[in-house]
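Can't paste images in this forum, so I'm doing it all in text. The chain is below; anyone willing to post the predicted structure tokens underneath?
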Amino acid sequence: GAKMRREGDQRWLEINGSPQQVWPKVVAFWRSQGILLLEENPTTGIMKTDWLENRADIQRDFVTNMLRKVADGLYATSTRDQYRVRIEPGLTSGTTDLYLTHRAMEEQFRSNSVGEDASTIWEPAAPDPAKEAAMLRQLLVYLGVSDREASSLAAQQQQASTATKSRLTTGSGGESVLVIDDEYRRAWRLTGVALDRVGFAVED
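Text version of the structure:
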């Protein structure tokens, strides 16, 4: 009852059932992964996970320790990932569309030229489409799709469209207007996903 759809570089899940039926299943998925939700709002159809820390890629060895002492500028020590899910009625009757976006923060090591006054700060990092695809695949398996079929769906490729779908223009009152060349419901979803990607909180 679930499929992965793709249009250009955008992936999403099309799930049989209403958003009200899908919502508790997705909440249960995060709980099964041991991931806390910071936000759950069925009214707006948005849920957001806690930040997930990943230090597995950081080597604790003599070279790393020396770099921490003498490196001038920045030194990456760990990353944090966060996922935001948007659940809305699907374009096909009786289905729900689920969009998932990834955000990342990277811990950077700062010191002066002689390695003194060391400190770390968290800075935004680029989202990772591969992590989005991997998490969608895990969702597919949790919803009952076989692991083999989920892998096949996740690997499907579709050539990205090079056509520009939006343009900025000026309204009759001199205000800036963004015109999206698509039908209303799809434009609504594209706008919502764009807001998710840049980290805006949607309240209504």
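The chain has five helices and ten strands. The two ends are 29 Å apart (CA to CA).
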